[in-house]
Amino acid sequence: MNITKINSGKYSPAFTSCFRNDAAKQINNYDKIFSQQSIKNSTNILRNDIDWQALESYITFHFANKQNVNSYSLAGSDGSEAYAYVISMLENNPKPACSKFLPIVSCDIDPVMTKVAKSGKINLFNYEIYNALIEYNIDLHKYFKKLGAPFYINNDNINWTNDIYSYETSKELYNSVEFKQSDILTELYNINDNGNSVVMCRNVF
Fold first, then answer.
1. 3 C-beta neighbours (distance < 10 Å), count
2. What letters, b where the CB count within 10 A reaches 16 and e where it falls short, cover 87-119?
3. Which of 164, 127, 140, 27 is nearest to 88 (CA)?
């Protein structure tokens, strides 16, 4: 696809409008096709489709000569991905060294999910706690304080079982993430990149 930019460096309004309309159609078609299937989008802390230690090692090595790094989690949902990024940095780097990667900006287009993320509370499954300990030797209780029963999020794709609880995020972890309601295109346009950006965008198909 040939993309034309205007003088500001941002994509033209015509292209943006066309892209959004096409995306909306594709999403609608996807919903129709898979509405009866057992398919859902979900995310969690230290999701195991990424080797977080390897990712952290690569990022710190790749940006070793940069004084600051722009970090983004687009379609950031409840903040799980951003929290995983921060925890990986804190666990494997001295605080002065990892500060250049923080805070990470976590944005989501859903106002409900953004409000939940900004609350500083999160629902965690027991397996997330166990997985962090077994796979990465990370005790998530350092970063999350157990509160009790999970809180309900409207339209959230959660399998409500006895294995999920609500947690309060530690001040250090919460302050390492900047939550905002925004869409992916807007955030990409506004990234001031000088070869010093990490952009994560996994919670979309």
1. 8
2. bbbbbbbeeeebebbbebbbbbebeebbebbbe
3. 140
Q: Is 2 helix (H, G, I), strand (E, B) or coil?
A: coil
CA dihedral 57, 63, 66, 70 (to 10 degrees): -90
Asked if 175 and 103 count as a contact pair (C-beta separation under 8 A), the reply is yes
Q: Is the peptide bond before 111 cis (omega within 30 degrees of 0)?
A: no
Do 138 and 91 meet the contact criterion of CB atoms below 8 Å apart?
yes
Q: Which helix (H) or strand (E) holds 173?
A: helix 171-174
What predicted TM-score, i.e. pTM, was given to this entire model? Answer: 0.77
Q: Are 80 and 47 in contact (CB under 8 A)?
A: yes
Q: Average pLDDT of each block of 10 consecutive residues along the chain (205 residues)?
A: 42 52 58 46 78 92 92 93 95 85 94 92 92 93 93 69 88 96 91 90 77
Quote the CA–CA distance of 100 and 60 in Å, as a whole number.
Answer: 10
- List helix spans (H) across 41-79: 52-62
Q: Phi-psi bin for 79: left (phi > 0), alpha (psi -120 to 50), beta?
A: left
